[in-house]
Amino acid sequence: QVRAMVYLMDTARLKRFLLVGQSVVYLIAFSSIFYQIPALYSETGIAPVAAKIEKCDPLDPLNCASPLVFVLSHQLSIKPSTALQIVALLGIFFSICTIAIRATRHFVFYLLLVLLYLSIVKVGDTFLYFQWDSLLLESGWLMTVVAATGNSPADLMSTYLVRFLAARLMFASGIVKLQSMCPTWWGLSALDFHFESQCLPTPLAWVAHHQPEWLRRLAVALTFFVEIYLPPMFLLPIPMLRALAAIPNIVFMFAIMATGNYNFFNIHFALLCMACLEGGYTSSAIRGRGMGRRLIEFIVSLAVFGAAAVHWAMMFGIQFEPKTSTVLSKITFTKAEFAKMTKLGTSVFVHVAVVGFVLVFLEFLVTVWKKDTPTAATPEPKSKKGGKGGKGEKKTDAMQTKQSGGGIFGATGRHAFFVLFFGSFLFWTSFVPFTQIDDAASNRIPDIIRDMHVRTRNFEFTHSYGLFRRMTGAEGRPEIVIEGSHAPNGPWKEIEFFSKPGDVNAAPAVVLPHQPRLDWQMWFAALGAYQHNPWFLSLVNRLLHADANVIGQLKNWPFKSKKEPIAFVRAQLYHYRFSKPGSKAWWTRSLQHEYMPVMAKDTPAILEFLAQNSLIATKTYKTGPIDKAIDQLHTQARQLPQNIFVWSTTAFGVLLSLFL
User: Fold this and answer.
1) Cβ 566 vs Cβ 582: under 8 Å
2) CB 14 within 8 A of CB 278
3) Where are the membrane-spanning stretches (predicted)?
């Protein structure tokens, strides 16, 4: 049977899995950012949130960057950074609730979660400008649709929207790699540099970097198969085929996790891919497929998947070399041919998505007509004491339809109206950012849809995606090493960050699913100049003041002696490379040039520059009882390393769900 080959879930079970999984991702994200708020966003932090909202009008809070943060700060008479921490704490609380308590997996709670995260992102500035933050917001809005008003056949449409998001993200990520004309992608040599040049590699990245060249090139070619060929299959009405397409993507995510610290992104995308394992509205509908239908689906799935694999092998010149027992790969199409294929592929993707949405709507109508309900095939888990959710609670289709006001004019109809109204809005407006990969497709977007997208842009409903557009590090991994001293001429002591490479003898860190955002931004800063990264000078300013919150984000602080406090800072740019096999060190490095000259504390030019870039809070804030309580709570959190704190809160939420 199909379920014997690939586990397929009914819609109600999938819905629970998606909602709990989304809550786990929220818990990771809120916990991670909560730990870092004092260093990044406090009134003396690197990018003070106070500087972004202190000019807001109390009579017009909606025009503030983050109305919720401003209102909390103004009404409770607390510091803006305290308000931001309260927002993060509320996010942690509601995330744990929706993980552990079934009754809270409702539209209202998921609306609160997405609004809380949106409130943080809106004032997050540079440290929250990541595609996974955008993805969490977009999926968050989708989960309000998934969680809406209980179960009904309309869930078939909401789970389709989740598959559509996963397909858009991965398809666009594959296309933009080749559109960038980056020679490493076109030469299938990207993995020659990726493992050592990515933001935060893991120890296994060193192992992967030293694999044979032919294997690395084959892995790049397989990346294009997973990212370009498989995502459109997420949208086809054949459960077996969707599963065959999703499983390689999920495996791909775990492979990335093994070699790189990409916070919650890989877990999140793997969760979205799980929507492809939906086999039918009910378990009985999955089991009820006749042998003939199952056989046809199996044959069609293998045929489509096989045809895609054959075409990929031709386009990427896949050949087995028996003499060396290797697999050769080489792109066989030209850039002009790729442009034509992109235009055709994007058009096909859009049409498949629209047809798929229509088919899912028709399936919803048919399911309502048959009065098929999830409870009939998927009863609530038995409780230890019986009662609701216990023995004898399995309901018939007729019972569930009657109790829920089933039918198109009852609760099912109200649910369907919400899913159709808001879900359709999200579906159609998402084509605006998605079609940026092809001008012809973008020009065909109706003006009314484009206008809706523009008018609602502040809510972050939909986004464009394109991961790893260009590969960096061909000449070595650029890395900034900040050095401090008590005297202008040294001696200089290196300041090591929590997880980014520094000491060549230190193993790469494993911090996922936590994201040390300061470490990440240091990677981006190394690709440019400090003059183009105002936050970097703010960091230097905080280091010169030995700010305790910022020091708490570091791996070491070599200026603990009061006799020789830090008074000067400079930055050097090195190129790091993974060491050769057999070496005791993990890295080798070579000095390239001075990244930033010597800076002294409270240099007027620096302070003026920071003020111009809203990186210094101009107002003074009193520390009230709520501020003190939150500070004390954060002091307790800092007893744990930042990644351990995130692991602990996540584990607590998951374990709590086992006992409630």
Assistant:
1) no
2) yes
3) 17-37, 82-101, 108-132, 218-238, 250-277, 298-320, 348-369, 416-434
- pLDDT for residue 2 is more than 50: no
CA distances to 12, 195, 374 from 379, in Å: 10, 46, 8
Give the integer Cα–Cα distance in Å for 251 and 590: 36
Write down the residue that tokens 């290196």 correspond to.
Answer: 494
Kindly state the helix (H) or strand (E) to which residue 598 belongs, with its residue range: strand 587-600
The angle that helices 131-146 and 11-41 make with each other, rounded to 10 degrees, is 140
Q: Is the pLDDT of residue 228 over 50?
A: yes
Peptide bond into 513 cis (omega under 30): yes
- Cβ contacts of 274 within 8 Å, gap of 6 or more: 14, 17, 18, 21, 246, 250
643-657: per-residue pLDDT in tens? Answer: 999 999 999 999 998
Give the containing element (helix H, strand E) for 577: strand 568-578
User: Quick one: how far is CA 403 from the chain centroid?
Assistant: 38
Q: What is the distance between the alpha carbons of residues 341 and 315, in angstroms, rounded to a whole number?
A: 11
More confident residue, 285 or 296: 296
**pLDDT (0 to 100) of residue 409:** 55
Q: How many CB atoms lie within 10 A of CB 11?
A: 26
Start-end of H helices in 278-334: 283-287, 291-315
- Backbone φ and ψ for 564, nearest 5 degrees, come out as -130, 70
Is 572:549 a contact under the CB 8 Å cutoff?
no
Q: CB neighbours (10 Å) of residue 440?
A: 12
Identify the residue whose tokens are 């401090």.
Answer: 484
Structure tokens at 546: 């030995």
pLDDT at 632 over 70: yes
DSSP annotation of 2 reads: H
417: part of which helix (H) or strand (E)? helix 411-418
Mean pLDDT, range 305-333, rounded to an integer: 95
The tokens describing 531, both together, are: 């003059």
Q: Which two tokens stand for residue 248?
A: 């390689």
Average pLDDT, integer, range 365-374: 68
Is the separation of the CB atoms in 282 and 11 below 8 Å? yes
Reported as a pLDDT band with limits 50, 70 and 90, residue 214 is: very high
pLDDT tens readout for residues 328-353: 999 999 999 999 999 999 999 999 99
Q: For 312, list phi and psi in degrees, rounded to 5.
A: -60, -45
Distance of CA 353 to the CA centre of its chain: 23
φ and ψ at 260, to 5 degrees?
Answer: -150, 145
Q: Are strands 477-485 and 319-321 parallel, antiparallel or unpaired?
A: unpaired
Amino acid at 651: A
Q: Which residues contact 115 (CB under 8 A, 6 or more apart)?
A: 68
Residue 282 has what DSSP assignment? S
Between the CA of residue 182 and those of 190, 220, 472, 498, what are the distances in Å?
9, 13, 10, 31
Q: Report whether 18 contacts 139 (CB < 8 A).
A: no
d(CA 567, CA 488): 8
